[in-house]
Amino acid sequence: MRLTILINSPERTANPHFALVWLDTRQKRWSRESHQGVDLPTWGEIQESDGQIVLCAPASDRPLCTISGLIVTRRQEVSATHGQVIWPSSVLQAQTQTPGYWRLQAVDRESICAADALFAGHRELRSRRH
Hints:
Blueprint: E1 2-8, E2 18-24, E3 29-36, E4 43-49, E5 52-56, E6 63-68, E7 82-86, E8 100-108, H1 117-120, H2 123-129
């Protein structure tokens, strides 16, 4: 299952900082589709704990963003459609610990084949193409 999440920074300005990310709950990976002012890599790994989803850098346990209140059950039920986001100060250009907000944009329950083999976890396929 893939979720599309819009993450907003805490600033309420005419040009807010944001990131649009896809969460692949089956493969425990995420990818950044669009962003402005929120410095996230193009993809990474997901950790789940106590009603929180933590977006981590690729091949790292370093948290980039914590999405609070989003739980996906084994039956692919989603617990909430919006909530708070916490960033370590190094991720946001504004250097703030104030919570931001996330909003669920879409839910795709069909199996998804990633266009990029690196995101899909098949690094050996990517190296053979180059």
